[in-house]
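Data deposition worksheet. Section B asks for the primary sequence of the deposited chain exactly as it was used as input, without tags or linkers unless they were present during the calculation. Section C holds the resulting structure in token form. Section D is free text for depositor observations; keep each observation to a single sentence. Incomplete worksheets are returned to the depositor.
Section A, Depositor: J.P.
Section B:
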Amino acid sequence: MLFSGATFLYAFLPTVLFLYAAAPGTKAKNYVLLLSSLVFYFFGEPVYVLLLIFSSISDWLHSLYIEKHRGERKAKIALISSIVINLAMLGFFKYTDFLIGTVNALFGASIPKTGVPLPIGISFFTFQTMSYTVDVYRGRAHAQKDLGTMATFVCLFPQLIAGPIVRYVDVAEELESRKHTLENAALGIRRFAFGLGKKVLVANVMYEVTVFFRDSGDKSVLFYWLYALAFALQIYFDFSGYSDMAIGLGRIFGFKFPENFNYPYISKSVTEFWRRWHMTLGGWFRDYVYIPLGGNRTTKLKWLRNIAVVWILTGAWHGAEWNFVLWGAMFGVLLIVEKLWLGRALEKLPRFVSHIYVLFIVLISFTVFNADGLSGVVRDIGGLFGAGGIPLVSAEAVYYLRSYTVAIALAVVGATPLPKFLYGKLSEAPKTVLEPLATGALLILSTALLIDGSFNPFLYFRF
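Section C:
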């Protein structure tokens, strides 16, 4: 079930809101959220609901044991057990067939793949539960005594399948007691509406361009660059829009989820870009991998190793294909280069030059990200630079460029802080009138396009 689907918007969500409002007290409201979250997940993965329940029970038991024996060797063993179980689940469902395929390709073997489908959101909820047990072990969080409350945290449908990656410490107090106000509800609805608009009005339109490109038999250098730009805009508005919807839903239910995007395309360096893009994932790897490995407070060689490990893992987290590993490794190298040499030079360059550098890197990187394996990387990157005698311009490229110029221009502007600034200025005086009108209009327009259109994918379901 998608947040941007009619079933969710006009059947599931209203029912949940009614039951939630009718439930007396925080504990009852938590159980409404838990049961509705299991139903939500059941729509997409009926069998894997059991996996979600198992993950909740496993980490609940482990955390209780860790807290009981904190400071003892038993606590460390329990922590390792919890991490192994989570990584085993993630590894089996996400990477088994990838490893089998790699072995078959390297050694000419014919080991049959499992064909087991990837549980939706497993990359997100395993990271959330691992951070929970680690925080309990470190003493940053108290173990949750109530299984229902723990399961509510793990299964909470606003952030279950696509983030942001919410840590237990972020919502621990709100799970026990939270306030519901009209102001918070209004903020949540507005944030959800903007996220829905990002997804439906921008990301889905950019997706059309990428589909036309893939289906085309008349490719050219221009068409490859148009595709790269469209995909970079699609993935930003798709994922940041979904994060906005999740944050908005959380606010409606009394939770304040962490921000996940902060206009990454205005960055002046790759380092800054990754401080602004998928911030909860970056923070997770920093706190639970990079710093425990020693961070930058070690020898230069180990520091470089730490960066390499984090970025190879970041690439692999996004997908079980070699192009994702290459994508992560590429950013690892770029970050090392910036930290050692290029960073100071970028600070001295004119602002527009550093922006062009970042956008060029981003377009190349997302072309690698969206390629069909390593052979696809070679083909698509080669296409950007005219390899293999690809013409500079084609009739189809010109046609689609003309057809989507306005949409792309609006998307480019929408990826900057300008719309937020203008909206703030517009709604300063008659805010009480314009805000609900703008929010309502956005919801109606997005819904109309959802009903009328056929393009409504969500990229991060693949990961």
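Section D:
The chain has 19 helices and no strands.
The mean pLDDT is 91.
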